[in-house]
Design a protein that fits this description.
The protein has 214 residues and is an alpha+beta fold. Helices cover 25% and strands 24% of the residues.
Length: 214
């Protein structure tokens, strides 16, 4: 496995709806402005960090072997979601909801049909920073989950580390121990409709998902 330590300025392609605050958008002489200054040298790059399942008793009954967080250029995010879904069985459920709100857990459905439906809204899934969405398979023995945070990086709970690493290699994503993520620093989220009038509003999209999956 290739493991790297990098220190460089941000080179990650973010969604158009997510940006760094302007200096006049944060309080002067505050911790926020200090974090904004540190962000100039933040290691927000393509890559991932991987952690083995710990000995936390809260995790003892959860059937995953490792947990990863993954940065990928936004234009390639949907492709990675589809590739990671190959780690899951043929029946999965969708998790979705407004950022910061309780998530909805959908009924289990055929994976291929689920991905086919979601693909029609891939633009919103990867760029609407007011929605969080994931795919999950959870049985007595296994937990596999792909979760796309509002900041549009992936959190992944998996079982087969070798297969996962191969997917990372296919996307030229390296394990980087000191990688950082955009939500560790001040950020501004903007509505997708400001940039694309054809995009579906967050509330409408969630209603559509409720109709399809709940």
């Amino acid at each position: 496995m290739i493991r790297e330590t990098k220190s460089m300025k941000e080179s990650l392609e973010l969604p158009i709806t997510l940006r760094i605050p302007n200096i006049d958008e944060v309080p002067a002489n505050s911790g926020v402005s200090e974090r904004l200054e540190k962000r100039k040298t933040a290691n927000i790059v393509e890559g991932y960090i991987l952690n083995q399942k710990d000995n936390n008793p809260d995790h003892s009954d959860l059937g995953f072997n490792f947990y990863a967080e993954i940065n990928i250029n936004n234009s390639n995010l949907w492709n990675l979601i589809v590739s990671l879904s190959k780690e899951m069985p043929e029946t999965i459920a969708v998790i979705f909801g407004h950022e910061g709100s309780e998530l909805n857990y959908g009924k289990y459905s055929n994976k291929e049909e689920t991905l086919s439906f979601l693909s029609k809204y891939s633009k919103e899934i990867i760029t609407d920073t007011f929605i969080e969405i994931g795919l999950i398979f959870h049985s007595e023995n296994e937990l596999i989950e792909i979760f796309v945070s509002e900041s549009k990086y992936i959190k992944f709970w998996g079982v087969n580390e070798e297969s996962f690493t191969q997917i990372m290699n296919n996307f030229n994503l390296k394990q980087i121990d000191n990688i950082e993520f955009v939500d560790e620093y001040p950020k501004v989220r903007e509505a997708l409709r400001l940039f694309d009038e054809t995009a579906i509003e967050t509330n409408d999209l969630i209603k559509m998902f409720e109709k399809e999956f709940i």
